Amino acid sequence: MRHTIKPSKTLPAAALLAFALALTGCGGGSSENKEASEKRSLTVFNYSEYLDPDVLDAFTEETGIGIKYEEALTPEDMYTKYKSGAIGYDVLCTADYMVKRLISEDEVQKIDLDSFENAGNIGERYWDMAKAFDPDNTYAVPHFWGTLGILYNTTMVDEPVDSWGVLFDGSCAGNIIMQNSERDTFMLALKYLGYSLNTDSEDEIREAQELLMNQEDDVQAWLVDEARDEVVAGNAAMAVVYSGEAYLGHQYNEDLEYVIPKEGSEIWIDSWVVTKDCADKDAAQQFLDYLCREDVAKKNFEYIYYSTPNEAVIDSLDEEDRSNEAMVPSDKATENCEVCTQIDPEVTALYNQLWKELKAN
Amino acid sequence: MSGLTKRFKWLATPYLLWSVGFTVIPLIVIVRYALTDDTGAFTLSNITAIADPIHARAFLFSLEIALGCTLICILLAYPLVMAFRRLRLSRGKFMMFVLILPMWMNFILRLLAWQMLLSSNGIINNLLMRLGLSPLKIANTWAAVMIGVVYEYLPFVVLPIYNAVMDIDKGVIEAAKDLGAGSMRTFWRVIFPLSMPGLKSGITMVFVPSMTSFVIADLLGGGKLQLIGNVIEQEFTHSMNWHLGSGLSVALMVFVLASMALTVKSENNVEEDRKNWEES
């Protein structure tokens, strides 16, 4: 979930939908959308509000390929829906570690990047980042990226925030909003403790959980979409958010600053992949190529203002925006950051269990 | 009459199809998931997992919320209904209408409004501060969830009680008064017992949904409070453990059915009481 500009309150609805899908999906009534028609179409699966809907219509207009658009809220949510098989998705956009998981489970097919006209718009830097989960850059095309950090209200803290420690030392008790996301929460705790966020050491992960357990009373709320809004409204002094939220947060409230803590953080990259069941791979590639095109990428960028890996778009920004760390994080700022690639099922199960314990605390 | 019933039986077909497709089959699927593990082998562990401390805790919390909500709703409903009863019929109806009106608005939207009201810089706290009082810390607490469920379910208690009370023959109440009963006595000895069927259906309509809901806890509890519904939802959407999620759902369903059975049983008793009462 590193998207949403407007606070969309779709979580419960999405959960219900997932539930309904779960029911219908295994009731023996799973239907595949294979219309044996001449009319080509793609079923695209993305996070909510993660691209400009106009872009989809324009694609159909240009190519005659229809788009069925489906949305999900979190990588886990997406994975659950995808795996249930109720809908045959062709193209999906999801998180780094989830891409790695899909690759390892043979759920996605290779993309022929040479057939792309606009792949060159995606900067080398981002292809390199994507190598963390797609070592040969053969499966995934980066869509948006960013970091995880702290968005804080400068008038509500004594000195500038530069460390995750501010979340744990009690100095801002009751004024902290955490991301209601298992991975991100554990990752920042691990980073604060000086461990790799991709660790598979149970001791380290348990230590992170203990840290979080002790923090529990100081946390005002665990939110996703509303996290930024609560800080904007002054209901909390700080929130753990994705960098994309920071730009608009600052636009709404000048007192807000975003920081990537010095202990390092997570770099996340959401990328497009083509599923193994996609029948019209050519159409899928055409669609992904289209998304890399400067005018299209720019439209999407201007729709949500997350960091784009599209250098043609970055070059077209004015000097001020280009030097805005929230929009185009520099190499220096992301120095200690890592991409999450931990997909070991045992570690995932451990995270699930510890997260449940934490939330029940 | 029976010919008529037969002739119109087919009218129930759409509902029958609906309930088979969207209630019976999904239920069977859930029970199947609940009784199997990843390998498909039979197990009861998904259901007994309700006793796991984490789940038991969420379950007890749900129970607390549900009982508290039901009790508060009843305590609020009776004075309200009694007041409505005294109003002229048309005004009573109008007041009922006002009570139901918010239900026409989207449920999530209303909860978001509560978020706004209760948040630490919210409308209520702003008002309090302007009056020179200290702000309340309700947002994202147990109290906020309770306010949410009571707000949400109050009409479901008021309506059946209102109907039951309005159904009481005026003569019965007048008789009580004629025989020297004061208003308290009339209420406790006549109105309250006669409103029992309404109360029972009010309880069933509130206790169960407030126990199984998770959206309210999500939106007003700030993700800090876990009802059993939240745990189940997480098992489905997040942990992808449909077996455990189904097992917990089944355990919850068994509990709910058992408590419903108890209510229905006592409802029959009430009916009998009423008959006896009316006969005597």
Could you characterize what this model shows?
The complex is a heterodimer of chains A (361) and B (280). With 361 residues, chain A is an alpha/beta fold. Chain A folds into two domains: 11-145 and 268-322, Periplasmic binding protein-like II (D-Maltodextrin-Binding Protein, domain 2, 3-Layer(aba) Sandwich), CATH 3.40.190.10; 147-266 and 338-360, Periplasmic binding protein-like II (D-Maltodextrin-Binding Protein, domain 2, 3-Layer(aba) Sandwich). Chain A contains 15 helices and eleven strands. Chain A has helices spanning 11-26, 53-63, 75-84, 96-104, 124-130, 165-168, 182-192, 202-215, 226-232, 243-252, 281-292, 294-304, 311-316, 319-322, 345-360; strands spanning 41-47, 66-72, 91-95, 108-109, 141-153, 176-179, 219-223, 238-242, 256-259, 266-275, 338-339. In chain A, strands 1, 2, 3, 4, 5, 6, 7, 8, 9, 10 and 11 form an eleven-stranded mixed beta sheet that branches. In chain A, helix 2 links the parallel strand 1 (41-47) and strand 2 (66-72). The longest helix of chain A has 16 residues, at 11-26. The two termini of chain A are 24 Å apart. The model of chain A is unreliable at 1-37 (pLDDT under 50). By secondary structure, chain B is mainly α. Chain B has a single domain (53-279), classed as MetI-like fold, CATH 1.10.3720.10. Helix content of chain B is 77%, strand content 0%. Chain B has 14 helices and no strands. Chain B has helices spanning 2-7, 13-34, 45-48, 53-86, 89-100, 107-118, 123-130, 142-167, 170-178, 183-194, 196-212, 215-220, 228-237, 242-279. In chain B, helix 4 (53-86) runs antiparallel to helix 11 (196-212) and helix 8 runs antiparallel to helix 11. Chain B is globular, with a radius of gyration of 23 Å. The mean pLDDT of chain B is 87.
